[in-house]
Amino acid sequence: MDTDSGRENYMLGYGDSAMAWMKSRTVERHGAFLLPYLEPGMSLLDCGCGPGSLTLGFAATLAPGSVVGVDREAEQFAAAADYAAEQGLTNLRFETGDVYALPFDTASFDVVFCSAVLGSVNEPKRVMQEMVRVLNPGGIIAIKEFDHGADIIYPQTPAIARSIELYHRLRAHNGHAAQVGRQLRGMIHEAGCTVENFKAVFDQQAEREGLRAHIERNDGLFREVLGPQYEALGWCTPEQLEADAAVWRDFAEDPAAIFMAAWIEAIGRK
Ligand SMILES: C[S@@+](CC[C@H](N)C(=O)[O-])C[C@H]1O[C@@H](n2cnc3c(N)ncnc32)[C@H](O)[C@@H]1O
After folding, report:
1. How buried is 138 (Cβ within 10 angstroms: 0-12 exposed, 13-18 middle, 19+ buried)?
2. pLDDT for 84-99, tens place per residue?
3. Is there an atom of ligand 1 within 6 Å of 115 CB?
4. Could you state, in order of their start, the residue ranges of all structural domains in the chain?
5. Distance between CA atoms of 223 and 229, rounded to whole angstroms?
6. Cα(255) to centroid of ligand 1, in Å?
7. 231-246: per-residue pLDDT in tens?
8. Where do runs of H (alpha helix) occur along 71-202?
9. Overall pTM surpassing 0.85 (yes/no)
10. Which architecture characterizes domain 3-269 according to CATH?
11. Cα(first)–Cα(last) distance of the chain, in Å?
12. What is the pLDDT of residues 246-268, one digit of tens each?
């Protein structure tokens, strides 16, 4: 593994809550922006594929084209590989690898996809350049990234605002750009590609059940991995974390509450 990325703190971890969050993503909801550019037979690399729910969706779309998921944490692949076998998907494989130094030759893939990774690395521009390296000339680079500077979370009581600030502070502490989404257009251009499509979208939670489920998943993540980091850094006591959890539960029951997480969807061509 590249030593740079070895020093980076991937702050969401690989516990049950983090896995459930990633596995809930489907191509239909999270990756649809890429579908108009795909044709059966194309090859695709999914960089930082995590537990592979999106990778599997692309494999089904592109068959018989080959799809590869690469991630530095291979423990996540087992369930995805089993599911692929169950579905009879034989055009898909997972490999351990570092997005700073992809284990593939230059110009190896028709499409390179990357979701929710560039906001979790210290040098997203370097990763972008590396992804473009493995792309065939004329190939498509498709990036989906959050931009926490554009999230609409309302109403923001002081307690809610403080809890959101802690999360942004942890991203900054780890050297991650919480507003990476808006930087993608420039990064794709700098990496030598033409931007063909660039859009902001929201992962919207405004209905009661969806909002409750969203807050519950976030609560799992706070308990599993974020809260312990805030405590270790001396930013929060266990009592404050419990109080924050209660504040978010109240938020989920507020008829006025909305939680709209901003994402950028970007398509570039090499
Ligand atoms: C938030 S998850 C996103 C997973 C998936 N792409 C999705 O959108 O559901 C980020 C993933 O990036 C991986 N990752 C972070 N830094 C990496 C690196 N330097 N090389 C390879 N994978 C990396 C993590 O292991 C994790 O699985």
Report:
1. exposed
2. 888 889 999 999 999 9
3. yes
4. 3-269
5. 10
6. 35
7. 999 999 999 999 999 9
8. 77-86, 124-133, 158-173, 184-190
9. yes
10. 3-Layer(aba) Sandwich (3.40)
11. 27
12. 999 999 999 999 999 999 999 99
